[in-house]
Amino acid sequence: MLSKLHAVAAVDLYRGEGPISQEELRARISDKEALVCVSTDAIDRIVLDAAPQLKVVANVAVGYDNIDVAHARSRGVVVTNTPDVLTESVADFTWGLILAITRRLAEGERLLRRGDWKGWAFDLLLGSELRGKQLGLIGHGRIGRAVAARAPAFGMRVAYTSQSVADAAAATDDGPARAMSLDRLLITSDVISVHVPLTPATRHLIDKRALARMKRSAFLINTARGSVIDEAALAWALQQHLIAGAALDVYEHEPAVSSELLQLENVLLVPHLASGTTETRSTMAELAIDNVIEVLAGRPPLTPVA
Ligand code: GLV
Predict the structure, then answer these.
(1) What is the pTM (predicted TM-score) of this model?
(2) Most CB within 10 Å of its CB: which of 114, 129, 216, 229?
(3) Is residue 213 annotated as a catalytic residue, yes or no?
């Protein structure tokens, strides 16, 4: 895959362990025209200004909250992401989390590995059924819709809220999924899954107040960005059993996870894996590379950010 890039440009490949330091990144892009980066790279004003010849920043991710897009734009730098190619993979993973938290898979595995399983028991780690219940989607873009498409297989009805649904008065029927206000969605849903990008408007969208609106029997799933949920407030809600459980793939301060969450049984914690299949990651990388090739050739990128 890299050979495509080698054919059109001299490539400087970072091979270090973990994310590149900001200092090294600034030094290495100072004479570059293109940058392929991932969501752990903070492409801020200082980094962008350190690369006067930069034409394109190609993020290997659908989210691009790690990039100062406004500053890039003001400098004439194109920013691209990798939408569509990871939609199905993330939607599958979201359902994996929904099933795992409602059926207590991680709790069961921990119990077994601890050596605490005493044999089959009628009432061992009883979970919650999905059939006949409401899945509430916060965000109804590509990934939210792909998650919704899988709901009939589990007998769930779908409700969603998105930026275009400001209040209950705006609610309309949208095929099998019902649009509603965030407040109504919080009150009526049995499983709530977050599928919005992180922006100033969505930071801590799920705060203490929102968590208190949820059913005590409800589950919260997040495969979007950690900061859409106030992690301290979530730990509090789980400790108080204000909600039944949560399954998280993303965190406010990755790779750190709040010590309160780590101590709780009613939360499933996985390390930002939702798009992580061999197939999807390779398609994502290929799309980012193709975006670079297009821009370097003076053509429009395939998937510029909005
Ligand atoms: C991963 O988190 C992505 O935005 O693709």
Answers:
(1) 0.95
(2) 229
(3) no
